[in-house]
Amino acid sequence: MSPSAPLLSVERLSKRFGAFQALDGLTLELAPGEVLGLVGPNGSGKTTAINVISGVYSADAGSILLDGRSIGGLPIHRRAHLGINRTFQVPKPFRGLTVGENLEVAAVYSRADRAEIGKCLEFLELAPLVGREAASLNSAQQKRLDLARALIARPRLLLVDELGAGLNPVELQRMAQTLTTIARSGVALLVVEHLLGFLRELTTRVVVMDAGREIFEGSLEVAARDRQVIDVFLGG
Amino acid sequence: MPRGGWYSVGVVLLFALLPFVYGNHALLFNMMMYLVLAQGINVLFGFTGYLPFGYVGFFGAGAYGASLAILLVHLPPVPALFVGAAVSVLVALLLAPLLRLSGAYFAIASLAASEVVYYIVSNPHLVSLTQGPYGISLAQVYNSGASYATMVVVLAMALAAVVYLRNSHMGLALQAIREEPISAGFAGINVVRERTRAWLLSAALAGLAGGAYAWHVSVFYPKSVFDLNISVFAIVFTLFGGVATLVGPIVGTLLLYGLYNWIGISQPEYFQLVFGIVIVLLVLFLPNGLVSLLRRAKIHVP
Fold first, then answer.
1. What was the pLDDT predicted at A1?
2. Range(s) of the domain holding residue A164
3. Does B186 touch chain A (CB under 8 A)?
């Protein structure tokens, strides 16, 4: 099988906040259905990368191409229409709306019908909570709701920001299976994650970041033996 | 009938029929006016989270727009009302960049903007156009009954707008924007466009109310249609009843404007006191308004 054309390609992306260079020429590529882990110490620019790719922040320099088409200047909803979606480190559901309404909101644009919403609720184990206000859910449930809201929008590229944090081992195991199922359906995943055990369940390919740039790309196993990666993680 | 539809029909019929059995038409008219303004605040604040302290600016713009259409273009009052609403919408379009601000900044900026409109209208240099500080007289078209009936129709339109928002994708999208604008964007909602639509709808309702008010009183000064108290009353009535519902602003307006007429006119000093206490109790114990009591009792509020 020939390598498929990249769905996402990010080239020399830079973003500065005041004196802090959060991204400094980040370059990466992602094929449809592929899972790429994005790891690195705190402040290395992982979440900023997701924020810039998803349009929450605009980039200072560099390009973001989806299917070879530049999307760098588009607002969030246009990127969502093109198939980019995401979850948040701290989940951001519509707190005053019910679980069902949270998904209905996202279904308006994607035209997902009741059956699809029902299937998504089942898939993320939210069906029994459908009438509950989102604010009343616990943190693990809110994370699944965040993910459900993203899925209803029919993403082709899903940016997942520390979905594992705060989940117990059983929940982590289930979340890894969920994400794997999503990737097998053809959705590309860019996964920012501190929990390397969790990440290992999802993918072998990682990009290691430090100070806003890529210092390693390859398999998680090789990364664990890479001198530079070890130095960065141990603060050497 | 959509959720809340029957309540709306009931309220409109009530105000259409009460004048036949109850003599204080000025009270009924003003109550309708505040019901419209409270629902206009509700459209904006309840569904998008923006609190417009300068809301009266749209009311005044509507009053002047309609009046000048009658005086200068010699339009009949009812079409003139729509000119008034169009003027309010135009002002809202000019002020749409304010929606980039959030929280208290928006509230203060909208207040300042309404003062700007007021000073333009009341400017003595514009006497030939707006009559400046000397105010407007529409004596030649004065018609108490017809203007009352018009306000009943405006009330019906305001309630219909909120019933629509309570039952439509647009209303759900606006509530999503109020809760989490970024997530709303990822749900595919064009946040800027939907917010602006709510802003313009809210301005149009205030403009219609302003035009109907101008026709009904027929003589007024710039100060009386740009009176900040109108904003404050409409906001407090809305919050007291409970935002983002149809029923909340209705209940809030009927109770508090009723209270105002009961003691506010005969003993204004006590009214200020009672009003103040009511607001403090509201903020402390019922920040989501009276309807939150019903919600706690698991009663669905349209």
1. 40
2. 8-83+155-234
3. yes
